[in-house]
Amino acid sequence: MRRRGLWRAIGVSVFAGAAFALWRAIDQNRRLGDAGWEPQPVPFPPPPRPEPAVGARRDRWVAPVEQACPASHPVKAKLRSGIFHEPGGASYGRTIPDRCYQDATAAEADGLRRAQR
């Protein structure tokens, strides 16, 4: 007797789950049809990226070499803190850079702020 009740409960649960899934699918299609939305195909190959503006510079920063900045890009920047360090600063020697900039204006143009002295 208990088994029969258990199987009925399982059967009712499966039926209710299927009915709910069907109802959701119909409702979702109705909503999408009302909005006029249709999926768009993904372009392949992807469109080329636009060239930077006339005044923009691609070579503002370089990656550090062995945790040190090259002589051509002496300004050290930490991206997590958003701070850049200039040569001669208090923390310049112990800073391990994420990026190296040519000068302070290039670092500021990327949204970084100057370290306190």
Any overview of this molecule?
- The model has no long low-confidence stretch (mean pLDDT 84).
- The longest helix has 34 residues, at 2-35.
- The chain is elongated.
- The termini are far apart.
- The protein is 34% helix and 12% strand.
- The chain has helices spanning 2-35, 104-109, and strands at residues 61-62, 75-78, 83-85, 99-101, 113-114.
- It has a 5-stranded mixed sheet.
- The chain has 117 residues and is of the alpha+beta class.
- Strand 2 (75-78) and strand 3 form a beta hairpin.
- The protein contains 2 helices and 5 strands.
Can you describe this structure in just a few lines?
The protein is an alpha+beta fold and 117 residues long. It has helices spanning 2-35, 104-109, and strands at residues 61-62, 75-78, 83-85, 99-101, 113-114.
What descriptive keywords fit this protein?
12% strand, 117 residues, elongated, alpha+beta, 5-stranded mixed beta sheet, 5 strands
Query: Which spans of ≥5 residues are poorly predicted at pLDDT below 50?
Result: none
Give average pLDDT, whole number.
84
Record field, number of beta strands: 5
Estimate the global geometry from the Cα principal axes: elongated
Largest sheet, in brief, is: 5 strands, mixed
Strand order of the largest sheet: 1-4-2-3-5
Count of runs of 4 or more consecutive helical residues: 2
The share of residues in helices is 25-40%
First-residue to last-residue Cα separation: 83 Å
